[in-house]
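Our consortium's second objective concerns turning raw sequence data into structural hypotheses that experimental partners can test. To show how far this objective has progressed, the report includes one record in full. It was chosen at random from the queue rather than selected for favorable results. The single chain below, 519 residues long, was entered without modification.
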Amino acid sequence: MSDWNEGYITDVTYTYGFYKETSPAAIRFALLAAGHDAPPIDKFSYCELGYGQGAGLNLLTAANPQGDFWGTDFNPAHASGARKLADDAGLANLHVFDDSFDEFGRRELPQFDYITLHGIWSWVGAEVAQQIVDFIRRHLKVGGVVYISYNTLPGWTHALPMRGLLSQYVEYQSSPADSMHARLEGALKLLDDLNEIAGSYFKGTPQLADRIKALKGQNRNYLAHEYLNRHWQPVFFSQMVDALAAAKLTFTAHANPLNCIDAINHTKELQQVLDRISNPIFKEVVRDLGINQGFRRDLFVRGPRRLSRADHAAGLLETRYALVTERAACSLSVKTNVGEAALQPPVYEPILDHLAAGGPLTGHELLKVPAVAQQVGVSRLLQALVVLVGAGYVQPCVPAPVQKAARAGSARFNQVVMSRTARGGDAELNFMASPRLGSGVAAPRLPQLFMHAMQQQPKADAPAIASAVWALLRASGQGLVKDGKTIEGDQASVQEITERLAEWTKSHQPIMRQLELVP
């Protein structure tokens, strides 16, 4: 009998998720921020290898009707769920399969502008990795881009024995008759016990304390897929470069544009070391060692083309930017690779204030604001926009014709997400499609229920909406927790929902409206 899963965990399905760095708009902006040209966004072909539950691929398809989307994940349960979501949302431009990468590569496929893989490389063996490289070599257009994220060294060095313990416990110590969740619980208990024994590797490696604590609080399906595959190997960046060279790929940019700004991401001492290194690949290796990098999100291009300084600036100024975070939550202290960076208030506050007050604006429009023109200027504005996108406060918008075309599909997809949440199922579908961004926006369970109830009762007041939301939660066996305690009783629950609704209406609903998620 063939080992069709190639040692990959298929006993449990993967978690639902969406990674905004995989959207064509985000990829284009990251390349632009690094000074490089990018594939088109008005019409393109897109492929995801190993799409998991397919929620993210469906979302991007809904928000980008001008794209032709393809993907494979050889877990048939994943493929079935992804197909059902696409059918429910009426997404005719999505094609999903449960092929291996080798089988998928032998199909009649288009040449792709974008190919994405999130985490997959770290979980497959050498043979499957070669299939990925062969697929990219055959099916990526010249000028096309690959987004690839993967576990890296040196950041995983100390944790390798921890991963080994978890996977070997499940293989040797637990019973195949037990559920994967039960087997994981036993492995985590053993890890916890060893972590308390003086002289053990774990007790003697203080760097692992936070990682072990985080493991116990994570989704068990995620842990199974992250740690328990037969093949699991973090690599140095240079090894990834060597592997993808066979597909004629060149490392071009970090997927997070914040990494373009050295002053924010490097200590003065590290920057002095990096300034002495001329080779760009070796510089990335040294940088990873200097910040103890454990996970990378990289963009590789088949024939990258560097923009002139004028075209680089023009591209950033012509882009339209939307605030995606409540203005009051946009801290001027941003987390980076080396701690936190303080953003200058005279530069960033007028930009954020006008994006909050005026809706999405281009860089050119921001320069017409007196406070921005006088206090910020062109060069600092360009850097500030890259920082704000990298920090997650702002996202680039797609062109107006694309937005218009995306409204119907995004609305259908969002309706399916809200309906499933209202019925008490698929609570992990916590993202919705924004036609303005061509991407996704976080939408936790309770806000989804607010929007769903408002759609059902457009003229209802806040108490009626809160009562409707509580009825949905109660019907699905859900409750509310406040200060670590479960709220008891209908009246107290409705009161709590009413207060949360008022907060959401004031702080988050205006953002959702700007992003065209609510009328």
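The partners drew two points from this record. The longest helix spans residues 400-422. DSSP finds 23 helices and 16 strands in the chain. Both points have been shared with the crystallography group to help prioritize constructs.
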